[in-house]
Design a protein that fits this description.
about 425 residues, alpha+beta, six-stranded antiparallel barrel, six-stranded antiparallel β-barrel, 20 strands
Length: about 425
C-alpha cells in the first residue's frame, strides 16, 4: 500500500513533463524501429507537432533543429528518448522509500491558542510528575518465603533537585518498600523522609541523578478564584501521566484526614477528573505552577464524580519544609481524647467532651478532668470544652482549627463546663510524646 501511494505521488509529480496518453513507451518504440521519410524543409514546419507528439516543447524544438541540420540523426534521437523514458520508469521502482517520502507533504495540524497552551503545559510539567508503587511484604503460607507484592500505586512530584518527592501519606501507608518511576521510565528505590498524617502529606527521597530531576514550579494558593482553570496530572488506574482539566469549583472547603480524622482546612474543590491513582499528583494553574496536591474525591462509586479535593500549596509548603529539615512536623496538642460529636449532641450540650486527659499531658497537668465511672459503675462526665482563647468550640473540628493557629509552648485559656459551672483553665501547649 505504501509503495503504491508513493508511486502514485511520484507519477503525479512528473505528469507536467509527460502528458498522460495511452502507451507512450510503445509509441516511441515504433518510431524508433521504423524508417521514417526524411522531412523536407517545405513540410517541416507543418509537421512539428505530428513528428514528435510526446516530447515537451523545449525538447521538441531541439530535435527539430537537430533533424533539420542532420536528417540521419532522427533515429538516434528517437532511441535517446526511449532510453530516457525507460530509465525514468525504472527509477520509480528502485527509488528508496525514504527518498520518495520527501515528495509527500503532510499538512501541519492547526491548534487553537488554548490547545497549544495546554499541550505546552503538559509537556513542560510531565517530567516533574512521578509514579509511586507501594510494595508490601507477604509470606507464603506453605514455603514461608517472604516476597513483595504491589498493594497500591499513586502519584507524586519532584520537589527539589536533591531528590525529595512529595505525595500523599495514604499513598505510602503500610508499605514495606517504595519505588518511584520517573518520566523517562527509570525506577529508583525510595526512602521515607517523613510524613504528616494529620494533613495527609509525605516526603520521599530517591538517589537519582540531578539531570533526571526536574522540580515543579511552586505557586501560591492564597489568591485563587472560583472559576479559575486548573490542570491535574497523575496516574489514574495505573495509566501513567494522564492530564485532566477543569476549574476551581470552590475554596476553603474542609475534609478529614483519612489516617487521623483531623480536619484539613482551606481545601481546594475542583471538577477536574481525579480518580484512584491520582492521589499525590499536582494540581496546576494555567501558568503551570503548583497550587495543590490532589488527595481525595467525593464519590459513591469510587470513580470521579466531578467533586475532587486538593490540599493547598500554602499548607503543603510549610509541612514539607519541616519534614525535610526535621523529618517530622511539630504540631501543638492539648493532650486529650474526646468523645465523638454525636455523643455530645445527645447530651444536649455544645462543645468537646473530654474522655481522657493523661496526667503527663498538657491538659492533665493543667487540671482538666476526664470522664470516668464511680464505685457503683455510674458514668461521671468530664469537662466539656466550650471555647479556647475566647473562640467558640462546638465540635472537634473547631478545636483542631484553633490549635492549628497556635505554636508549641503557647499558653491558651481553655473554658470548660464542669457540672453546672464554667471554669477557665490556662494550658501550655506541648508537642506529641513521640515527637519530643
Amino acid at each position: 500500500m505504501a509503495a503504491s501511494s508513493l508511486i502514485s505521488t511520484t507519477f503525479h509529480f512528473s505528469s507536467p513533463l509527460f502528458p498522460p496518453r495511452p502507451s507512450p513507451i510503445r509509441k516511441l518504440t515504433v518510431l524508433s524501429l521504423h524508417k521514417l521519410p526524411t522531412p523536407s524543409s517545405s513540410n517541416l514546419k507543418t509537421h512539428k507537432r505530428s513528428v514528435f507528439p510526446y516530447c515537451p516543447p523545449c525538447l521538441n524544438k531541439l530535435l527539430l533543429t537537430t533533424t533539420k541540420n542532420n536528417p540521419f540523426s532522427f533515429a538516434l534521437d528517437s532511441l535517446l528518448i526511449l532510453c530516457t523514458s525507460l530509465a525514468l520508469a525504472l527509477s520509480l521502482f528502485v527509488t528508496d522509500v525514504d527518498s520518495a517520502s520527501a515528495f509527500v507533504v503532510t499538512p501541519q495540524k492547526k491548534l487553537q491558542t488554548d490547545e497549544l497552551a495546554t499541550v505546552r503545559l503538559f509537556q513542560e510539567n510531565t517530567p516533574s510528575v512521578v509514579y509511586i508503587t507501594n510494595l508490601a511484604a507477604k509470606q507464603d503460607a506453605f514455603t514461608l518465603d517472604v516476597f513483595e507484592v504491589p498493594q497500591g500505586s499513586g502519584s507524586g512530584f519532584v520537589w527539589d533537585i536533591q531528590g525529595n518527592i512529595v505525595t500523599n501519606y495514604h499513598v505510602i501507608r503500610g508499605a514495606s518498600d517504595l519505588r518511584v518511576t520517573l518520566a523517562d521510565q527509570s525506577t529508583f528505590d525510595a526512602k521515607v523522609v517523613g510524613f504528616d498524617q494529620d494533613k495527609d502529606v509525605a516526603v520521599l527521597h530517591v538517589d537519582a541523578p540531578k539531570d533526571k530531576l526536574r522540580p515543579i514550579p511552586i505557586g501560591v494558593s492564597a489568591d485563587l478564584l472560583v472559576g479559575q482553570k486548573v490542570f491535574a496530572i497523575g496516574n489514574p488506574f495505573g495509566l501513567d501521566h494522564t492530564l485532566t482539566t477543569g476549574v476551581i469549583s470552590g475554596l476553603r472547603r474542609e475534609i478529614s484526614s483519612a489516617a487521623t480524622g483531623r480536619p484539613i482546612q482551606d481545601v481546594i474543590q475542583t471538577d477536574a477528573a481525579i480518580n484512584p491513582g491520582n492521589s499525590g499528583g499536582p494540581l496546576l494553574d494555567s501558568s503551570g505552577s503548583l497550587i495543590g496536591i490532589n488527595t481525595a474525591i467525593y464519590s459513591p462509586s469510587g470513580a470521579s464524580s466531578g467533586v475532587g479535593f486538593s490540599i493547598p500549596v500554602d499548607t503543603v509548603n510549610g509541612i514539607v519544609d519541616q519534614l525535610v529539615k526535621f523529618g517530622k512536623v511539630t504540631r501543638p496538642i492539648l493532650g486529650i481524647k474526646f468523645a465523638p460529636d454525636q455523643s455530645v449532641e445527645q447530651l444536649g450540650v455544645s462543645g468537646v467532651l473530654v474522655l481522657d486527659a493523661p496526667a503527663n499531658g498538657p491538659a492533665g497537668k493543667a487540671g482538666l478532668l476526664p470522664t470516668k465511672r464511680d464505685s457503683y459503675g455510674r458514668l461521671i462526665l468530664g469537662d466539656i470544652i466550650t471555647s479556647v482563647n475566647g473562640k467558640k468550640v462546638t465540635n472537634g473540628s473547631d478545636l483542631y482549627r484553633i490549635l492549628d493557629q497556635c505554636n508549641v509552648g503557647d499558653k491558651v485559656i481553655v473554658e470548660v463546663l464542669r457540672g453546672d459551672q464554667k471554669e477557665k483553665i490556662p494550658v501550655i501547649l506541648e508537642t506529641k510524646a513521640d515527637e519530643s
